[in-house]
Design a protein that fits this description.
By secondary structure, the chain is of the alpha+beta class. It has two domains: about 200 residues, no CATH class; about 140 residues, no CATH class. The protein is about 30% helix and about 25% strand. Strands 6, 7, 8, 9, 10, 11, 12, 15, 16, 17, 18 and 19 form a twelve-stranded mixed sheet that branches. It is globular, with a radius of gyration of 20 Å. The relative contact order is 0.13.
């Protein structure tokens, strides 16, 4: 069956990792709800059941999946669009990303993200672009990304009526961009960027290897309701961190606590190449159970990437766990605001509630590898 217009597609993976798909479809102006079974939300997509199945369970080696999906997407664009969506991969182009919404200059000074805006794509092009995102990421990572996109659509719906008529600031699904840096190849080096407000997915691919850093994930609102279900895009990150902090003994908690408040990311967008001194409780002083909890927390970021690359990175994190630090600022009561940081030789994660009051409804996070940001080990500096 071909769906002629999809206003909302939602892939939600349940605990058995089966795929549930819910999407709202419009037939002749009337909106109805069709349930096929897990998560992906996007506006104006023309899709078929076969396309959705392929996205939920891509086959083949990761590099080949990514290249095939990139080429399929590029086959949908015209020459003018291709000139905009494909860029050279170099030290300047790869740094053009931000967590800020449309209408605000990025931290690096650019006024527009790399690539093509979803609002300027046809439904078929949007579908092909999202198939590329799904091919590069894991299923769990794809779900997280789409939940963030949907949170921004929720923000657009709630904020648009009160925005000044001439405001350039916009949120929502139409304001997300896709860019391909370099030429997709199973042997060469290239990069996919997908992002918008509160999201910057930067994946560098080289042969069979890929790197996710730096990547920004955020959410506003931090929780929303979709089809009667509460969605928390960064809920597991929050809950696992509080669980670890609660599990520490008094001496470990004291070591973890910073002596100052943190209001935003320290090494967020525009802070490339900067370093901070590790602080907090050191992994070598944690119990085996605590270390597994810390690894599980780190996995919420690492496992956004495809399963094979994520497994390799998690093995690297485990090897360096003794020299990895867990730091905390703010309340230790779940539901209240707290900043935390995980920092090791090849890892930097920050989670930061926003604003003067550290709002728990507005979250920024960053994931970096100081030795491999922008795939430095893959593409060279």
């Amino acid at each position: 069956m071909i769906l002629t217009f999809v206003s909302l597609v939602s892939f939600v993976l349940n605990s058995t990792r089966d795929t549930k798909i819910c999407f709202r479809i419009r037939f002749g102006g009337r909106m109805s709800l069709l349930k096929i079974g897990g998560v992906l939300l996007v506006a104006g997509m023309a899709v078929s059941g076969a396309t959705l199945a392929q996205r939920a369970a891509p086959a083949g080696p990761p590099a080949a999946r990514a290249v095939d999906a990139a080429r399929a997407f590029l086959a949908t664009v015209d020459d003018r669009q291709r000139a905009k969506v494909t860029l050279s991969l170099n030290a300047d182009t790869r740094k053009v990303w931000s967590n800020l919404p449309t209408g605000i200059a990025m931290q690096v000074g650019a006024t527009e993200r790399n690539g093509l805006k979803f609002g300027d794509l046809t439904p078929a092009q949007q579908n092909a672009a999202l198939a590329l995102v799904g091919a590069v990421l894991s299923r769990a990572g794809y779900e997280k990304v789409m939940n963030i996109v949907n949170a921004d659509q929720t923000l657009e719906v709630s904020s648009a009526p009160s925005r000044a008529a001439g405001s350039k600031i916009k949120f929502g699904r139409a304001e997300f961009y896709m860019a391909i840096l370099g030429t997709p190849s199973t042997t060469g080096r290239w990069m996919m960027q997908f992002g918008g407000h509160h999201l910057a997915i930067n994946v560098t691919v080289s042969g069979q290897d890929s790197a996710l850093t730096p990547t920004h994930t955020g959410a506003q609102p931090a929780a929303y309701t979709l089809n009667g279900e509460t969605i928390r895009p960064l809920g597991r990150e929050n809950d696992k961190a509080f669980a670890l902090m609660t599990a520490l003994d008094a001496a470990q908690r004291k070591a973890a606590l910073l002596g100052y408040q943190v209001r935003n990311l320290v090494l967020g967008p525009g802070e490339d190449g900067k370093v901070i001194q590790p602080e907090g409780v050191r992994g070598s002083t944690l119990t085996a159970a605590h270390r597994e909890m810390l690894l599980d927390l780190v996995g919420e970021w690492v496992n956004i990437l495809n399963d094979e690359a994520a497994a390799a990175k998690m093995a690297d994190v485990r090897r360096n766990l003794g020299d990895t630090y867990f730091a905390w600022a703010g309340s230790t009561t779940n539901g209240e605001a707290a900043y935390f940081r995980v920092q090791g030789p090849t890892l930097l994660i920050e989670y930061a509630p926003q604003g003067a009051n550290n709002s728990t409804d507005h979250i920024h996070t960053i994931y970096r590898d100081p030795t491999n940001d922008y795939g430095a080990k893959l593409v060279g500096r």
